[in-house]
Write the structure tokens for this entry.
Amino acid sequence: MEHIATPKVENVHLLNPVNLRDSRVGTLYITTTHLIFASPEEKEELWILHMHMSSVEKLPLTTAGSPVRIQCHNFRVVTFRVGRDREAQDIYSSLSRLSRPQSVEELYCFQYRASSSNKSPELPQPTGWNFFEISAEFSRQGADSQHWTLTTLNNDYSLCPTYPKQLMVPSSAQPSLVQGCAKFRSKGRLPVLTYYHTSNGAALVRCAQPLSGLKGRSPEDEAYINCILKSNPKSDYLYIVDTRPKMNAMYNRAAGKGYEAEAFYPNTKFVFKGIENIHVMRDSLAKLVDACETKSETMETFLQGLDASGYLKHVKAVMEASIFIAEAIQCGTSVIVHCSDGWDRTSQTCALAQLLIDPFYRTIQGFQALIEKEWLSFGHKFTDRCGFLDGDPREVSPIMSQFLDATWQVLTQFPEAFQFNADYLLAIHDHVYSCQFGTFVGNCQRERLEYKLAEKTYSLWGHLTNTADQYINRLYEPNGAGVLSPSVMPQDILFWTGLYCRYDLGKSVANGGSGPKKDAPVISLLNLAQVTSTSTQSLEDTAKHLSKQVNGLKSLISNSKATGAVKKFLPSVVTNMTGGGGGS
Amino acid sequence: MEHIATPKVENVHLLNPVNLRDSRVGTLYITTTHLIFASPEEKEELWILHMHMSSVEKLPLTTAGSPVRIQCHNFRVVTFRVGRDREAQDIYSSLSRLSRPQSVEELYCFQYRASSSNKSPELPQPTGWNFFEISAEFSRQGADSQHWTLTTLNNDYSLCPTYPKQLMVPSSAQPSLVQGCAKFRSKGRLPVLTYYHTSNGAALVRCAQPLSGLKGRSPEDEAYINCILKSNPKSDYLYIVDTRPKMNAMYNRAAGKGYEAEAFYPNTKFVFKGIENIHVMRDSLAKLVDACETKSETMETFLQGLDASGYLKHVKAVMEASIFIAEAIQCGTSVIVHCSDGWDRTSQTCALAQLLIDPFYRTIQGFQALIEKEWLSFGHKFTDRCGFLDGDPREVSPIMSQFLDATWQVLTQFPEAFQFNADYLLAIHDHVYSCQFGTFVGNCQRERLEYKLAEKTYSLWGHLTNTADQYINRLYEPNGAGVLSPSVMPQDILFWTGLYCRYDLGKSVANGGSGPKKDAPVISLLNLAQVTSTSTQSLEDTAKHLSKQVNGLKSLISNSKATGAVKKFLPSVVTNMTGGGGGS
């Protein structure tokens, strides 16, 4: 509780941005993990995980009070107005600190403990951590052992610290060649196999940019690329796809990096794909969020804001590059993909290309394997990109969100080709940022092992498997679709309102109808003790488990003797909170 | 065949707008009902119904030949290039004439005859014509006989020629009052019941604008409106919703029409809803089609074109007015809805409001009843609005398409609330324009009886029931949703690419995957004789029936002896066509 200046503030207004007069009055609680707002006017409390907060702002004082505005990674935006400025300052400083931990050990996953619900049985902590095994995945792909082999050179992460231990390289490449090639690639991220096309022998290979500068060459790199070419004897050339805009790649040459000159790499075809960098993507998302938030509510302002954000254009670019890769592989041509460091655009396009080619990756289990391989094993920097810790804000970028968006675009165009539904993508998106599970913590495999996440935290994959019922796509036809070729015509790239506007007001349904979109996970105050203690429980499970008890609680609260009764239910936490200090 | 100048033109190029070098060469046939393009490079012929053509243009001559461009009501756009200008002129003049019949008797429904397919049994001609009975629908609604009664005053269409014979009016309104009221309403379209809310007694009443001019009054109209108010004893006021923008309604006053002054209609609340008129809607759709056709293919040009068309803004306006009406009815307040003549905006909003309130209208059968009642019985001018005949182009407007679009928006927001899927809406849309069925021919009930459509033509409802399998929404939960309250936030109003861009190129799928969208109905040349004779068959049924035979046909054609063999299959038509003249 050390960072909680004021654990409970009464008479707080939750403002309705569309209609200020429609604000709700209630009590705001700050626990070690969540902000909770309970209003007697509402059946359900509002719970916001600190880890989900992407920004906390104290807005200018008004005559009515001090507003504090919270933006979340799941695109929820709420503004609370507090009567006393000192309390607003306390809330602001507590949330700012709690939403931006200083060290990995402070992350939610190290506190979270699963328990059973009436919906799903208790999840043993190790469940899910062993679902994925990279060598098993290469066996599943049918990677040809004559041409491809697992090297042990990275067993101690000395070849490439941000790569996994197990790397598939051409069988014909001697260790010295592998090591020489790694030296000529940014951060040692040499070209390694990520997908093998069983029926035609084409390979999808990923890496970082070469350290070529303006005129530099590496005989080892060139020989190694030739080994990759030879590992697919049916094709006499291969593609090198630089997913960056040409200008960016050229700019990198001045810093001793750059791209492959076709002249030095015989029988290769080199192409740029024009996907913008993390800074452009971050700014684009910020503009998109602004466009969604505009209060004017006209079709024009929204469409103009959507256009100005460029967000769909970027999603389209990721899809276009992925389709190019998928089509080449499908035609039997091997493809080497890189960007700068090979952990953002490369992860996006390699993963999406495989999703298009291989129906396995469109199953619940297969999509997990795809994320494990392309994102976790190959070192997408989740800690930096998602801003889990108090760090450099210029490292934050919605690269994974864009991939999930592109996946949603494909799912929307081919609704029968996926075993999972859009809720599955939303659940993954939310838990990438929640840090409730250790799965996405860290920037690479090596870091995750150091943090002992598999021993100390729960796996998202275990949780999702435990709750898989809600993610089954009822339109799925397992044997229906083979290779997918989505349209990237501008008319077919859609705005994913289900992700970016999930929590917008005006979406509730009058007269008991079912809502158009799933609401936020809710939870009863009754469970406060559980959630804030070390014996916590998944938010969603709890919500379902307790839905019946909410009404009972409400009458309890509205009863004048409620304080005493609630205290009886929540002996430790409420006492701690109202008394201040102490803590779990 | 009298309007067919050249029934067969060889060496015609079907141009690919994205890549001109990717055009297909083939033979173009013009039959009495369809244009057919057969290319040896393609498995399937392209069939376009003349009735589906919304515009035929002869583009400027190029060195490569004369292009003829065809735009269709189902948003297909094709351009053929013909070597000889005289042939292009023949094609242009034939199609211009065939796509714009001069008289009702020329419409496709009077030639079309159903036959059985392996998918669906033969449809007897009368099937579907008796599915809907307005008095049965009022019984289903539970219309309260104490307060509402069927009047016989319009049995001979003398009260209102564009209304149905059977009209529900307040029981307390004497015939003289009913007649007096009709005299004070545009085209005699007096306020009559269209939906009765069984559980709260609120009534949805529709009409045309009053002939009030600047200061005119009608004691009968005022008394009649009061009867409507009294027919819902639980409420002490009612709404009059003028769906037009206030400016338009005021402008109408100068022409002796206008809107109700609250002062003269005690206990009414009057509101404008700001839906634009048919001319604005027609222009908006034209701009939308342009935006979809832009070849530049960038996200920016499309979003800017979509914004500039204003199309989604108009769909949003229709939804907003409908939600207002639905909420009022749901709260127990009766609502009188009108626009100018009460057959465009009034049909849209009354129908959509009922779709939101009553789950019955979200079933396959219920949606048919809703269209029968709100659109056909109450006289939406399908012949004029859809431009079936060669008439005033300023009467054409996509009012029905907008309603189907708004329905699709609701279906997309509440995927489990509908028994039918989006393909059902597409099928209805296509057949509104195809005139294959007599269902939508004519401007009102009286005209349809005069044309003897129920005796001479097939009903779309029979056909859709016969092929209902493909329209079942697999996500439907019959008891799940009650009243729907869709979001009209700009972020939630989507562009319906499945309708407006169904035939875009770049949507086919490589390597045998299943396509993202259903392709155009296709049909084999083998069936040409059947389709162009009077014993024709539904396009889609035929397509399925013949899919297996297509490959056989292709090898036949590629064979050097094909001409003779094909002629053997198609004795009458091909001979007629190659010989010119004659005809069915």
Notes: The first strand of chain A starts at residue 8 and ends at 14. The CA atoms of residues 4 and 168 of chain A lie 49 Å apart. Confidence is low (pLDDT under 50) at residues 506-584 of chain A. Chain A touches chain B through 54 residues (CB under 8 Å).
